[in-house]
Structures are given as structure tokens and as C-alpha cells.
Amino acid sequence: ETGVTQTPRHLVMGMTNKKSLKCEQHLGHNAMYWYKQSAKKPLELMFVYNFKEQTENNSVPSRFSPECPNSSHLFLHLHTLQPEDSALYLCASSQERGTDTQYFGPGTRLTVL
Amino acid sequence: AQSVTQPDIHITVSEGASLELRCNYSYGATPYLFWYVQSPGQGLQLLLKYFSGDTLVQGIKGFEAEFKRSQSSFNLRKPSVHWSDAAEYFCAVGGYNQGGKLIFGQGTELSVKP
After folding, report:
1. How does pLDDT run across B11-47, given as a tens digit for each residue?
2. Contact between chains at B100 and A97 (C-beta distance less than 8 A)
3. Paired residues of B90 in beta bridges
4. How many CB pairs (< 8 A) connect A and B?
5. By CA distance, what is A30's nearest residue in B?
6. Contacts of B13 (CB under 8 A, 6+ apart)
């Protein structure tokens, strides 16, 4: 595997479910990011991790809980979501937090019923 | 406040025609500028980036962009569009005082007519 991978690619869940999104980067990077992409809206940065430490939480509701066990893996734990949380969730990585180029995964298309 | 504006939500061009996608930014320091492309159901792929130096930047797939500080613009160009270029294009700005944040424009959807 190369680049940034995300699983699952598609997820349908009810509002009472708990699920997790997984991101893995094979680029040797130290910073990882979660973005939300909703229809007709710009990409919204959710979280930033640098060397496994969270450095940015962009006022994201607590029903989204990130986890970064090491520099290669990033998770987004989901619980009691709302239908408006339906979106494409993109993971990205860069060499370090800052001005480095970010490389994106293919995304997870989430539908909340 | 930092922002990115892509004035054109949707553009249609004929195959073989030239293309220019506009991007204007507002940023308080030296900007780092990016163009990404997104095909349906896919993530974002980096086309090109500007950090410093030559203001005309070459990217992949025959794209180029020109940084014009006086106009706060970073327009993307391609001399001859191919049908496979149909996708959504995003301009983004970042910098040292952004702490790793990229600010994205709303995107321009490109359609290509045969």
C-alpha cells in the first residue's frame, strides 16, 4: 500500500450507532488531519495531530472523537451522530504540521440515517 | 481573516480549448498556495504548489499556475483541456502562521464538452 488509505470507503449508520473511521499513511509523515467535506461547502478542518499529539480541534462536537495511536494511524470514533453529519470525511498527512504539502486519502462517504 | 475565493462555481469548456480557473486569496503574510483536483468519489490530488521563487509553477497533467502578489491571485491554467480533466478543482492557502491549516476555496466544477 502506498499513500494514504481510508477504511471503510462507505458507511451507513443510524443515529444511535457507534462506528469508527480508520486512516493509515505509508509516507513516513508526522502530521495527520481529519477534514469534513459537505455538499456545496468548502472543506472544513476538524482535527490536526502532530507527532501523535492533538494540536487543533476546530470546535468539533464531542460526538466526533479522534484517536492517533502513532504517526501512521488516525481514527475518528463516531457516536450518536445527526443526519447533518452525513458527508465525505477525508484524512490527510504531511511531513510535519505547518506549511508542508498535505496528501489526501480517498475519503469515507458517511450517511447517517 | 484568511480566505480563498473561487469565483466560478461551474465552468464548461470544449475539449482542446484552453482553461483558466480563478483563485483569489486574502492572507496576512507570505502565502503558500496549492491547487488540488478531486474526481467523483475520490480524495484530493495535488496538482501544484507555490512556496517561493518563480511565480509561474508547473504541475502534473499539463497544468500551471501563476502567483500574482499584487492581485492576490493564483490562477490555474491549461492550454488544451482533455475530457479526463473533468473534475472539481480546489485552491487552498496556508502558511507558517496557520499552524498546519489549509484554507480551501469552495471549488470549481469543470465540465468538458466533446
Report:
1. 999 999 999 999 999 987 778 999 999 998 888 999 9
2. yes
3. B36
4. 58
5. B100
6. B19, B81, B110, B111, B112, B113
Residues of A in contact with B95 (CB under 8 A): 99
- Alpha-carbon separation of residue A49 from A33, A57, A97, A102, B91 (angstroms): 6, 9, 8, 13, 23
- CA dist B80 and B60 (Å) reads 14
Residue-wise pLDDT tens for chain A (113 aa)? 579 999 999 999 998 889 999 999 999 999 999 999 998 788 999 999 988 888 888 889 999 999 999 999 999 999 999 999 999 999 999 987 766 789 999 999 999 99
Say which amino acid occupies A92.
Answer: A
Q: Tell me the residue type at A28.
A: G
